[in-house]
Amino acid sequence: MLEVEGISIDLGEFALHDVTLTVEQGQYVCLAGPTGAGKTVLLECVAGLHRPETGRILLNGFDMTDLPPESRGIGYVPQDYALFPHMDVLDNITYGLVEQAVSGREAQQKAESIAELLQISHLLHRDVTTLSGGERQRVALARTLVLDCSLLLLDEPLSALDSATTKELSLYLAEIHRRLGLTVLHVTHDFAEAFSLATHIAVCHQGRLLQTGTVENVFTQPNCRTVASFLGISNVFPKYGAEPETCPIMHHIHGACTDHCHGRCVCVRPDQIRLSRDNASDGALSVEGTVKDVRWFGPIHEIVLDVGVPLVATLSRQEQQELNVQAGDKLCVCIDRNAFHALDDH
Amino acid sequence: MAEAPALAQSRSSGRHALGERLFQYSAAGSLALEVLFIGAVCVALILYVDTHTFFSALVAEETLFSVKLTLATVTISTGISMLLAIPAAYALSNYRIPFASAIDTLVDLPIVLPPVAAGLALLILFGYYLGDPMEEMGLFLPHSQAGIIVAQFFGTMTFAVRSVRAAIDSVNPRLPAVARTLGSNKWRAFRRVTLPLARNGIIAGGVISWARCLGLFGPVVMFCGATRFHTEILPTAIFLNNSVGRLEEAVAGTLLLLVLAVLTLVVFKRLGSRGILF
Prior knowledge:
The complex is a heterodimer.
Chain A: E1 2-10, E2 15-23, E3 28-32, H1 39-47, E4 54-59, E5 62-63, E6 74-77, H2 89-99, H3 104-117, H4 133-145, E7 151-155, H5 163-180, E8 184-188, H6 191-197, E9 200-205, E10 208-214, H7 215-220, H8 225-230, E11 236-237, H9 249-256, E12 265-267, E13 273-276, E14 285-297, E15 300-306, E16 310-316, H10 317-323, E17 330-335, E18 341-343
Helix pairs in contact in A: 2-3, 2-4
Chain B: H1 3-48, H2 51-58, H3 61-94, H4 100-112, H5 115-129, H6 131-136, H7 145-169, H8 174-181, H9 186-214, H10 218-224, H11 234-243, H12 247-273
Helix pairs in contact in B: 1-12, 2-12, 3-7, 3-9, 4-7, 5-10, 7-9, 7-10, 8-9, 9-12, 11-12
């Protein structure tokens, strides 16, 4: 189990402020957040590449804040994989085993075994500079996993890959996590990647952790505007009365909210907004909206509406085929009371 | 009237072609001028001495002494320069050093310091201030062969540090960092990752430093004097022969230095073409 207790560090361009995070044994935690949030700095602190100015880092109850990286037993795969270009794949994989004074024959056997697991046996004698992005990632993983680390740190491992390879490798990472029972802390700026892989998510912004929880918890109950924004929830409405110039629809929106929302910002996920052509007032909020734009994102359509304030809804391909929504259409917009979610205003 | 735009376009195109040709000719002309100048200097040297004088000067006892002394001192001073340059360059490249900018400037000083001034400064330090205590220890550097090594080291260490630093800077800092997470301590990460990756630049630095040492005259003559069969390295021998009117011997020595310089460059470029350098 990894425990990060109130660590702070200022590296000039990037900083962490009083970050506390726990990763339980076997969890796959995605540290998500926009670029420049300090995610990589946190990962590098855990790996031992930076010493935090305050706070502690414990692994399985042992304080390793002052330990150098080589004494931590933590696997680290950086964003560019950092394969050693003067060594072939086999030498890269056995690098750590050589440091552990494992005999040549045993090191080779272990390397072959991990290569087989990661399906890179055919690459063992290749020059690393000739590998594709996906192959490089697998080799970097093999180099780390061969050391039987208690914690695996992955820094944006899928960010430099094309979408097909990203999908293939995210399935592959999930499979490796499941088969080896690894504890993983994975940095990403892509919330879709985080949701597809993680058991838990920690959202980082400007050097602070804003929310941690299960994937379901963070997805359905973002705790503040920044997290909602990172999750791609564009329907965030300010505190009622905070912006008196806003149109009367805000009164209806806040009137439709559940009690715990009152006096706070509210958001509605686009997938929780129902659109219909007839005036079916079966939601807490039922208003007419004008379609401003229809955007196609493969399996879903994003419908941009004007209900007095901008509102974004999503329709599946089938729903769009049934409704055939076009820009300029007038639609009935229905939102259930429990679809409104209160947010802190930061 | 209809031909006017076509005419203007044709004129503009002509001006464009003329401009391109002028640029091409001026670049090629400058290069040709430089090649001719260097070539003329070399050819003048070669034409000046006849073969008989050249070979007899080459096998003369004095020439052989200066060649041996030159090769020995140059090799030792380059070796010392490189041995110190590798950790010094690593420190400059990796550590947050207080007054880093001032230290960086100081390291560059031997390059811009006039060679004669450098020699005089060494003489003041090792003669006036440290002369007596060092003499008591049996090591008096001014006007000695050991002093030649010190003067050459002073004149070449900046080249060594700069080239090694450039080589270390070219290594992705994430590589030794990852090596440490894989179990290497700082020294092992340097030895197994940084050093092999910086090897080409380090060898290049060594070759260039050696070549630079070979022709160093100012600091050596100021610090160690120009005593025949004692502190007479090749550049000193050329100076001495020229000053007493033995021009053939001076030119023979110069040609020898020229051959050594060309050989150094050939080795440097051969290593490069075989991928050992760069």
